Amino acid sequence: MELNDRKMKILQAIISSYFDTAEPVGSRTISKNYDLGISPATIRNEMSDLEELGFIVQPHTSSGRIPSDKGYRLYVDILLENQKAQIKKIALLEDLVQKADRIESLLQDIGKMLAKETHYATMISTPQYKSSKIKNIQLICLEPTKLLVVVVTDGNTIKNYMINIKEGIEQNILNRLTFILNEHLYGLTVEQINLPLIQSIQKYAEANFEVITKVLDVVCQTMQSTDDTDIYTSGTTNILKFPEFSNINKAMELIDTLEEKSALKTLLYSMTGNEDGKIKIKIGEEIEVAEMKECSIITTSYCIGGEMVGVIGIIGPKRMDYMNTISSLKYLINSMEKKLLKGDKGS
After folding, report:
1. For residue 160, is it within any domain?
2. At a CB cut-off of 8 Å and minimum separation 6, what does 130 contact?
3. How far is CA 302 from the centre of its chain?
4. By the 8 A CB rule, do 314 and 330 touch?
5. 326-336 burial, b for 16+ CB within 10 Å, e for fewer?
6. Does 346 reside within a domain?
7. What does the alpha-carbon distance between residue 216 and residue 227 come to, in Å, rounded to a whole number?
8. Rounded-to-integer distance, Cα 294 and Cα 281, Å
């Protein structure tokens, strides 16, 4: 529902004041601090209308008003519509992005920096590739009958697997097998590893047919695995600084929820869907997780090579600074994706 200009300005003033003070807002506060050109009596009447329409509510212990979830939703929708070009530069972020050698390290550092910048909690998922490409394979002998298979994919994501072999194998033979694997598989997705290619690799392996077959099995498992996506969280204790979470039991319930990686992953991906790079916001009752009903969550996705592979989320109180948080998130995504598009995606 659209509001007339005067009601919208009063709603924005209430949200702005409540953001600054976390205290319910009265008509005198608006009249004194915001130059709206109308009397306190008129402001009171307009606030009464806003309350009747469901955009503000009255807490039990105060004569003032605070924004409702519906009020925040209208404010955020208008903000997203009008804030297309604003991006807030984060000091030191570009240096951090340039120095990162692996995407996992980059994501962890970014989560910490974003939590420090916004003073909220952050959640970042590791890449979930739909068409991941092989970058490098290494075979390392750990014991006479044990091999470590190291598979490196897009974004320098590294997976390690142990395989058992029947008898020892010399390092020069391992080097040859490593060369064969990289020669045939570099830059391929799992869909491109077909039977003729496997048979060709097995032929080159000669007497080491069984070893190369086991290695190929774990390589394909690595490329097909999407269930091991991790979630990095940072700044969870920032939540305790806000008066909305002064009830220690509620605060601890929220912090415990932020440690439930499976639930966070479901929440992040359900919010983002398939819309690459779009900012999505859920407020209060819109969030499916019961412990987060006093929060707002802002999410967006990040891409590697044009493919959406992960999600970044920021969680804070409903009166969070949406404008600065969205601007910081946009700058972060721009810097990340520039880095990941350079060279060999993370090298």
Report:
1. yes
2. 226, 307, 309
3. 8
4. no
5. bbbbbbbbebb
6. no
7. 20
8. 14
* Three-state SS at 339: helix
Residues 109 and 154 in one domain: no
pTM for the predicted model, two decimal places? 0.71
* Maximum CA extent, the chain: 92
Task: Please tell me whether residue 29 adopts helix, strand or coil conformation.
Answer: helix
Tell me which amino acid residue 179 is. F
Identify which of 69, 72, 108, 113 has the alpha carbon closest to the alpha carbon of residue 90: 113
Residue range(s) defining the domain that contains residue 69:
5-81
Within its chain, how far is the Cα of 8 from the centroid?
31
Residues 256 and 294 in one domain: yes
Q: Looking at the structure, tell me whether residues 242 and 179 fall in a common domain.
A: no
Q: What is the pLDDT of residue 168?
A: 80
Q: What is the pLDDT of residues 125-182, one digit of tens each?
A: 887 765 678 889 999 888 888 888 998 887 677 888 888 888 888 888 999 999 999 9
pLDDT at position 133, please?
82
CA distances from 267 to 76, 153, 260, 331 (A): 20, 26, 11, 23
Give the integer Cα–Cα distance in Å for 24 and 18. 6
Domains: count for the chain: 3
Show the tokens assigned to 253. Answer: 């319930």
In this structure, what is the dihedral angle of CA atoms 10, 16, 22, 27, given to the nearest 10 degrees? Answer: -30
Same domain, 248 and 175: no
Domain stop point among 181, 209, 224: 224
Q: Same structural domain for residues 106 and 238?
A: yes
Structure tokens at 64: 């003032």
- In DSSP terms, which residues pair with 140 in a beta bridge? 148
The span from the CA of 332 to the CA of 112, in Å, is 12
> Is residue 336 within 8 Å of 144, Cβ to Cβ?
no
Decide if 281 contacts 79 (C-beta within 8 A). Answer: no
